[in-house]
Design goal:
single chain; Aminopeptidase; five-stranded mixed sheet; 14 helices; 17 strands
Length: 462
């Protein structure tokens, strides 16, 4: 009996010791977790807090990492893969600065001429042919750098399939389709049928939206985007830019962070890029909290000469003077401001070979970024709301704010109000016009022949 009692006491004592040991182990684990969470919370706070700070901490950033990041500029090429040829029907320059949280989207017209003598132009000299001819993006990148004066190092080539899969993966994209779109091309098995207005687009409808330029011919009439929005390719480029912004807004929602694996898989299959993962991860933590309303969008300015002057080939010729002004106001504005503050003409980060060009164009940029009094700004006001009374209402609001409405008229009904910079009006001026109207999407489409500074098309949202 005594033996049994002794064994029971030993067992009881062993159990007691084990419990104490486990309690100590759990206490140590708990302390480690508290320290780890505290450290992570502290690092997240030091990295700016929120989702951005958390992601920055996860990838090993500290509070100095972002300060050392420069603006990144990337050439985006959208390649149609439904034909035998692979033409880059979407060509854009995108930039993002994580410190200022500013971004730009500049469209390059696909018919932009890259040759030297336009009187001997050929279709192969159009910028959208270069990728198909050379089977790589290097020549296109070289041509864009020559046209813009930007030293773009990186490119992203996106196939049509990627767009469809990404839009479906993020649950669709809410977008305000600017105009009814109806078009059929049996040779491409392409059928477009979209109604104007705010709606959620899946991948298939997104492709229809971005490929539409004009409608089927009916009674000899072919409908395209209204001229104030941008005819044919210009309207298409505007829609592309607006849709990319809307897609970014949807993709950057916190819920889609958990879909990163699926998005990377889509990119791996359908995207060609020279951006290293190590570089991308430096920018991603700060991009997740980017405000897409801060994106500047524009199209490279120029003209389409008569085909009689261009060897029978329809081409777009860049206006070098206007392009230089636009490039500086979009991509060098921050550097120009720093230059003014430091009373120096040098631009940090630019190569010596570009210094002469930059010093010339900086003075131009400073002019275009200067605010203009509202009384000196002339506006063309067009009614695309479908309501006759809205025109006089909008005119009164603009004139009450001090603007000169020089010309009025009506145009094709559109869903969203558009404010287009036709001259060298500053961003602040454009934002003030938007505030006067209470709504509007801002873009730039400069024209040396425009008789007004700004064109405003009021939509159904006014």
């Amino acid at each position: 009996m005594k033996k049994k009692q002794i064994e029971k006491d030993k067992n009881r004592e062993n159990k007691r010791r084990k419990k104490k040991t486990w309690k100590k182990v759990l206490l140590v684990i708990l302390l480690i977790l508290i320290i780890a969470i505290g450290w992570f919370t502290y690092r997240t706070y030091k990295n700016g807090g929120g989702l951005s700070g958390m992601l920055a901490t996860v990838v090993g950033h500290d509070e100095n990492t972002k300060k050392n990041l420069k603006e990144i500029r990337v050439l985006i090429l959208g390649v149609s893969t439904d034909l035998d040829s692979e033409l880059t029907d979407t060509i854009m320059v995108a930039s993002y600065n994580p410190n200022t949280q500013k971004a730009n989207l500049l469209s390059i017209p696909r018919d932009t001429y890259t040759g030297k003598n336009k009187s001997r132009a050929t279709a192969s000299q159009k910028i959208n042919s270069l990728y198909n001819i050379n089977k790589n993006p290097e020549k296109t990148l070289e041509a864009v750098n020559e046209l813009t004066g930007l030293d773009i190092q990186y490119y992203v080539v996106v196939k049509t399939e990627a767009l469809i899969e990404v839009v479906d993966a993020i649950g669709g994209v809410e977008f305000d389709v600017p105009i009814d779109m109806k078009y059929d091309d049996p040779t491409q098995d392409l059928h477009i049928d979209l109604k104007a207005g705010l709606q959620k687009l899946d991948g298939n409808k997104a492709e229809q939206l971005l490929r539409w330029r004009h409608s089927n011919t009916k009674n000899g009439v072919m409908t395209t985007y209204p001229s104030e929005y941008g005819n044919d390719d210009f309207g298409r480029m505007r829609t592309q830019r607006d849709f990319i912004v809307a897609t970014m807004k949807q993709t950057l929602k916190p819920g889609n962070i958990f879909k990163i694996g699926q998005l990377l898989e889509i990119a791996n299959k359908n995207v060609e890029t020279n951006i290293e993962l190590s570089l991308a991860k430096d920018y991603v933590p700060y991009a997740v909290e980017f405000n897409t309303d801060e994106i500047k969008t524009a199209v490279l300015p120029g003209t389409t000469p008569d085909v009689k002057e261009t060897n029978g080939v329809s081409i777009f010729v860049v206006n070098k003077t206007e392009a230089k002004e636009l490039i500086n106001s979009m991509f060098y504005e921050e550097e120009n401001n720093d230059s003014e503050n430091n009373t120096t003409n040098s631009i940090e980060g630019n190569s010596t070979s570009n210094s002469s060009t930059n010093s010339t164009t900086n003075s131009t940029s400073n002019k275009t970024s200067t605010n203009t009094k509202s009384s000196q700004i002339t506006i063309e006001l067009l009614n695309g709301s479908g309501d006759k009374n809205k025109l006089s209402e909008a005119k009164k609001q603009l004139e009450d704010a001090g603007y000169r409405v020089k010309k009025t008229g009506s145009t094709t009904a559109i869903s969203k109000t558009i404010i287009t910079n036709k001259k060298g009006i500053s961003d602040d001026n454009l934002k003030q016009i938007k505030e006067a109207l209470g709504t509007g999407s801002i873009s730039t489409n400069k024209s040396s022949t425009s008789i007004v500074d700004v064109t405003v098309v009021i939509g159904k949202d006014f």
